[in-house]
Protein: DUF3016 domain-containing protein
Organism: Shewanella cyperi
Amino acid sequence: MRKLMTLVAGCMLAGAAVAADEAMENPVTEQGMVKITWQEPKKFRDIESSGELQSRFEQRLFETLTKELDKSAQKRFKPEQKLELTVTDVDMAGDMRPTFGATTTDLRIVKEVYPPRISFSYRLLDKDQVIAAGDEKLTNMNFMNDIRNYNDRPFMHEVRLLTQWVSKDLVLPE
């Protein structure tokens, strides 16, 4: 009887852990001038965690990208402007590979054949007026040569993809 109760309690705890890891359907992150809606992240090509709860990993990824994009926006936009993105797909740099043996977690292998990609639509607002809008599919095929080896910030390749777009490629109206 005691084994049965332990088994039932274990199943309930496992179910609670799975329920706790359920991510929101379309999370929204906002920082300063930037607001990002992450449209159906479960369908994104690759935002797989290698060692932490998937929901926590996604939240950390989304918050980091939003924060770093806001830093670039602050340098380029006027104070009354706001950038809104709806991200429809993310494929992080690298590829997840299973490990066999010592650990139970997978490893992200980063090679040139697995570049970072992000697809989104955007609107740049000046007060409440849309002054620029469009759709983007960003890929950095040269990502392994763009960043110095000593730069090991979290999500550095994805951050660079978005911040370069804001700094150099986003065409602002005159």
User: Anything to note?
Assistant: The chain has four helices and seven strands.
